[in-house]
Design brief:
The protein has a two-stranded antiparallel ribbon. It has one domain. The longest helix is centred in the middle third of the chain and has 25 residues. The chain has eight helices and two strands. By secondary structure, it is mainly alpha-helical. The termini are far apart. It is globular, with a radius of gyration of 16 Å.
Length: about 200
Amino acid sequence: MELTLIILASFSLIAIAELLKRKFSLPTALTRRFAHATTAIVAGIAPLFVTQTEIIVVSIVFAAILLFDRRFRMFSAIHPVERRTFGDVFLPLGVAGSALLFLPNTIAAFQFGIFVMGISDALAGVVGEKFGKHPVRIFNNTKSLEGSAVFFIATLVITIFFVTAPIHQILFIVAVLTATEFFAVYGLDNLILPILGGFLLQIFM
């Protein structure tokens, strides 16, 4: 029952993003970030209700569906059109990889990495795409200093919530994750951040 609810919640959030895009002509950049953050939050709380194996299997199935749908674009609200990225596919794979490495023993490490990837990255993307005035070109992908600053601040808040460590260690964690997000291209941050964040939490928690 719990697994069914998790799956329905994830699909419902994607459907809501699709509805918002079609009804209000919202830009894909915005609806994609909405789906990114909300589905990551669902994934973050999933270990409280379902097993490690269920999370891994569902995440891999989601990745396969999204990869297949890149051709047919039924979910136009989450498929990028303005730049080449596989972030939509890497997100569920990042969840699966993190679940494999950290569950069921270290739920906090799993949640920390997922929330950084979902919340911090989504906020950075929204701010960077709308308000970024200092773009930086990396391997044909454009990041912005403003987006990275927002990522740093959001990740700092999340880290303080999860880690009880001296401030210099907290700042180290945040700096490493911010640099990773900045230099990861083609959506690889969605795959790397959950795993790297989980490892960093295990080291410093």
